Amino acid sequence: MAGLLMSMVWTTMLNRLRPALAKVVTPVGRTLARTGVTPNVITVVGTAGVVAGALGFYPRGELFWGTIVITAFVLFDMFDGAVARITGKTGPWGAFLDSTMDRVADAAIFSGLILWFTGAGNNALLAWLALYCLVSGVVISYAKARAEGLGLTCDVGIAERAERLIISLVGAGLYGLGVPYALHTALVVLAVLGTITVAQRFHTVYAQTRAAAERVGR
Ligand SMILES: CCCCCCCC/C=C\CCCCCCCC(=O)OC[C@H](COP(=O)(O)O[C@@H]1[C@H](O)[C@H](OP(=O)(O)O)[C@@H](O)[C@H](O)[C@H]1O)OC(=O)CCCCCCC/C=C\CCCCCCCC
Ligand SMILES: Nc1ccn([C@@H]2O[C@H](COP(=O)(O)O)[C@@H](O)[C@H]2O)c(=O)n1
Ligand SMILES: [Mg+2]
Ligand SMILES: [Mg+2]
């Protein structure tokens, strides 16, 4: 319970960090834009790097170096949108590409962990926890995409993608450095927060559909 409360406080702090982070991301985005690189190239290269890091290192048990490579490339995701906005290239194709590539990257990270722990890493508990985190992450993202496709909003959740990435990458990185139970702790926290996020998204969509039904008297 204390751990959960700490995570909630931390997540709130992360939300507060977002505007401050924009002050770093925007100038870097401006520099990138001047090089002529397109937002879609940043999106694709970032995803390819995450997939290569996750599937190239994790299944061999190289959790620390895998985490370093993944972290470097996952940060590209903060700059593609900035470059798109600065160059006036935002659009539905870029938004679709960004969100869909996010799912590919997330799947690769947890698949890499699962491949290691079901293979030579031989740890069924961590494999099951990683599988749970993979599936809950998919449900979290799908719920939002489907809600938005129905014209509803679903911008809630204690563990959105950035939070999920930080928890899993810190856990994997520390475990790779030999910190006992770092990944166990991270994946349990992520499983709990992921489940809460699924519930939060179901609740917000249900509330909107009920309100709409009441308006038409159903
Ligand atoms: C010894 C151990 C060493 C281990 C080190 C590992 C440490 C790892 C620490 C940090 C890793 C940072 C990872 C964070 C990367 C965040 C990437 C990201 O998600 O950026 C995009 C995101 C919002 O984009 P969207 O709104 O387009 O994304 C939507 C989102 O994915 C939705 O998710 P859902 O919850 O629904 O699944 C999808 O639904 C939707 O489809 C999708 O479009 O941007 C942000 O969230 C911005 C805030 C990120 C806050 C990250 C804080 C990072 C903190 C420190 C990093 C320092 C960065 C400094 C940069 C300096 C550059 C020179
Ligand atoms: N290749 C891309 C990537 C992103 N966008 C736009 O940016 C938004 C997301 O930006 P983040 O930096 O928060 O990831 C996205 O919804 C698109 O509007 C783009 O156009 N092309
Ligand atoms: Mg992005
Ligand atoms: Mg993205």
UniProtKB/TrEMBL annotation:
<comment type="subunit">
    <text>Homodimer.</text>
</comment>
<feature type="transmembrane region" description="Helical">
    <location>
        <begin position="38"/>
        <end position="58"/>
    </location>
</feature>
<comment type="pathway">
    <text>Lipid metabolism.</text>
</comment>
<keyword id="KW-0808">Transferase</keyword>
<dbReference type="GO" id="GO:0008654">
    <property type="term" value="P:phospholipid biosynthetic process"/>
</dbReference>
<feature type="binding site">
    <location>
        <position position="81"/>
    </location>
    <ligand>
        <name>a CDP-1,2-diacyl-sn-glycerol</name>
    </ligand>
</feature>
<dbReference type="InterPro" id="IPR043130">
    <property type="entry name" value="CDP-OH_PTrfase_TM_dom"/>
</dbReference>
<dbReference type="Pfam" id="PF01066">
    <property type="entry name" value="CDP-OH_P_transf"/>
</dbReference>
<feature type="transmembrane region" description="Helical">
    <location>
        <begin position="165"/>
        <end position="193"/>
    </location>
</feature>
<feature type="binding site">
    <location>
        <position position="85"/>
    </location>
    <ligand>
        <name>a CDP-1,2-diacyl-sn-glycerol</name>
    </ligand>
</feature>
<keyword id="KW-0443">Lipid metabolism</keyword>
<keyword id="KW-1208">Phospholipid metabolism</keyword>
<keyword id="KW-0460">Magnesium</keyword>
<dbReference type="GO" id="GO:0005886">
    <property type="term" value="C:plasma membrane"/>
</dbReference>
<comment type="function">
    <text>Catalyzes the conjugation of the 1'-hydroxyl group of D-myo-inositol-3-phosphate (also named L-myo-inositol-1-phosphate) with a lipid tail of cytidine diphosphate diacylglycerol (CDP-DAG), forming phosphatidylinositol phosphate (PIP) and CMP. PIP is a precursor of phosphatidylinositol (PI) which is an essential lipid required for cell wall formation.</text>
</comment>
<feature type="binding site">
    <location>
        <position position="98"/>
    </location>
    <ligand>
        <name>Mg(2+) 2</name>
    </ligand>
</feature>
<feature type="binding site">
    <location>
        <position position="102"/>
    </location>
    <ligand>
        <name>Mg(2+) 2</name>
    </ligand>
</feature>
<keyword id="KW-1003">Cell membrane</keyword>
<comment type="pathway">
    <text>Phospholipid metabolism; phosphatidylinositol phosphate biosynthesis.</text>
</comment>
<keyword id="KW-0472">Membrane</keyword>
<keyword id="KW-1133">Transmembrane helix</keyword>
<feature type="binding site">
    <location>
        <begin position="40"/>
        <end position="43"/>
    </location>
    <ligand>
        <name>a CDP-1,2-diacyl-sn-glycerol</name>
    </ligand>
</feature>
<feature type="transmembrane region" description="Helical">
    <location>
        <begin position="104"/>
        <end position="120"/>
    </location>
</feature>
<keyword id="KW-0444">Lipid biosynthesis</keyword>
<dbReference type="GO" id="GO:0000287">
    <property type="term" value="F:magnesium ion binding"/>
</dbReference>
<feature type="binding site">
    <location>
        <position position="80"/>
    </location>
    <ligand>
        <name>Mg(2+) 1</name>
    </ligand>
</feature>
<comment type="similarity">
    <text>Belongs to the CDP-alcohol phosphatidyltransferase class-I family.</text>
</comment>
<feature type="active site" description="Proton acceptor">
    <location>
        <position position="102"/>
    </location>
</feature>
<dbReference type="InterPro" id="IPR000462">
    <property type="entry name" value="CDP-OH_P_trans"/>
</dbReference>
<keyword id="KW-0479">Metal-binding</keyword>
<feature type="transmembrane region" description="Helical">
    <location>
        <begin position="63"/>
        <end position="84"/>
    </location>
</feature>
<protein>
    <recommendedName>
        <fullName>Phosphatidylinositol phosphate synthase</fullName>
        <ecNumber>2.7.8.-</ecNumber>
    </recommendedName>
</protein>
<feature type="binding site">
    <location>
        <position position="77"/>
    </location>
    <ligand>
        <name>Mg(2+) 2</name>
    </ligand>
</feature>
<dbReference type="InterPro" id="IPR048254">
    <property type="entry name" value="CDP_ALCOHOL_P_TRANSF_CS"/>
</dbReference>
<keyword id="KW-0812">Transmembrane</keyword>
<dbReference type="GO" id="GO:0016780">
    <property type="term" value="F:phosphotransferase activity, for other substituted phosphate groups"/>
</dbReference>
<feature type="binding site">
    <location>
        <position position="98"/>
    </location>
    <ligand>
        <name>Mg(2+) 1</name>
    </ligand>
</feature>
<dbReference type="InterPro" id="IPR044268">
    <property type="entry name" value="PIP_synthase_PgsA1"/>
</dbReference>
<keyword id="KW-0594">Phospholipid biosynthesis</keyword>
<feature type="binding site">
    <location>
        <position position="77"/>
    </location>
    <ligand>
        <name>Mg(2+) 1</name>
    </ligand>
</feature>
